[in-house]
Amino acid sequence: MSTLHPRLGQTAARFIQREHLLLIDGQWVAPRAGGRFEVEDPATGLLIAQVAEGQAVDIDLAVAAARRAFESGEWSRCKPADRTRLLLRLADLIEANGDELAQLEVMDNGKPLAFARRGIAGTAEMVRYMAGWATKLTGEAVPLSIPGQWHAYTVREAVGVVGQIIPWNFPLSMAIWKLAPALAAGCTVVLKPAEQTPLNALRLGELILEAGFPPGVVNIITGYGADAGAALAAHPGVDKVAFTGSTTTGKRIVQSALGNLKKVTLELGGKSPVFIFPDADLSAAIPGAANAIFFNSGQVCSAGSRLYVHRKIYERVVADIAAYGDRLQLGHGMEAGNDLGPLISKVQMERVQRYIDSGRESGATLASAPRQLSEQGYFVPPTVLADTDARMNVVQEEIFGPVLCAMPFDDDDLSAIAGLANDTEYGLFAGIWTQDIGKAHRLAARIRAGSVSVNAHMVNDPALPFGGFKQSGWGRERGREALELYTELKSVAINLGQA
Ligand code: ADP
Predict the structure, then answer these.
(1) What pLDDT is stored for residue 498 in this prediction?
(2) Has 301 been annotated as catalytic?
(3) Which residues does ligand 1 sit against, CB inside 6 Å?
(4) H or E, element range at 9
């Protein structure tokens, strides 16, 4: 197809142009209603592929397949070491096909190839980390104090059939963050990727079959959120739904889940603060704070989108971060040398532009240099809005674009500083830059957020739990916690009779 980027490898190009179907019960099948929808390259706005539009009827079939696979016990009750072995095989396949997967990620999502490639390597590591947990999901013996002699213990069992709904900002990693712990725990899954970025989930489905997972353990339904996604969240045959996306959609998922009171985990939005103190190592803090918001064009739930700089260094730091953003090269992710790709869609680009306009209309000043962009895709340049304040929409609402709101602070009272951090409905992340490690610990303890980084941003290790306080979500991803949230805890008490 001429709309594909000329630097795209043949394997990725062939995959994109192939007919795309739904993965149900180990087979690639056409959607019942026969619908299809189009996928575009956000760096050009050109259509690159058509994928199957799964609907409620296809979700029914996928859930039935996942239920059969779960009840058969072939996966849920197999030896944990067998689950480990298959997951490790999948990790190897992800690595072996890393170049192709990275290119698909670029064409689907727009990010620069080097970042996509790094993300794929991290994805394989996440699978390996979770694979190791399959054999370590232990319960404990519980001493009882009631009369009689007892042997009591707890055991963790897979929660059952899981619906997983993921966003478009990191298509492959988001699929793996969801699939790997669920599979390690012995669940069976119906995965719905975002309609903007279905390609890598489909390629992953092929790798899952190649690795040898039993039919029905992983089912993949591409389709729209309001249709396939809503049907999955509401399905009475689903025991748990795990969702990553906007807080607004997360609230809808909770409502849909009410019918059968399925378990719900949510990884939602953020408006994360970054604090730079006067004693910080500015040679690290300035690029750190810049990348915290500009990486992936700001389309990161934990983006550091509110910047608080001590007044003593405010002017200089804000000017330097704006200049850092001005130097970032925008362009197609397949072209070497580009630092930032486009936003995911026209809708998202226009939304972000409206936020920038609204910030300026409400009194913020533009610290970034104005830029003329020649690209035809959905590009928005890095934008630093200085002298913002807590009442502005741009400071309160998640923008999900490369837009930083900078504010000075001149208080040395940590309660007041924590008050700034916590002045939001979100609680996903916070960054602290200071050389005073005691102060960093004291402030970290007062911030109501699921993750805090000191002298770093976005510490992405599979072992480190990630998730939100407040309206940033329920539950955790990564770490042992992610896995345990795909289990139910059962207690067994055995009457040992009289001696
Ligand atoms: P955005 O608005 O930026 O696309 P969303 O949070 O709405 O972000 O989308 C994240 C995921 O949620 C996508 O896979 C999308 O298809 C899905 N989704 C959207 N609306 C619903 C819904 N009502 N029920 C279930 N899933 C949904």
Answers:
(1) 81
(2) yes
(3) 165-167, 192, 194-195, 225-226, 229-230, 233, 245-246, 249, 252-253
(4) none
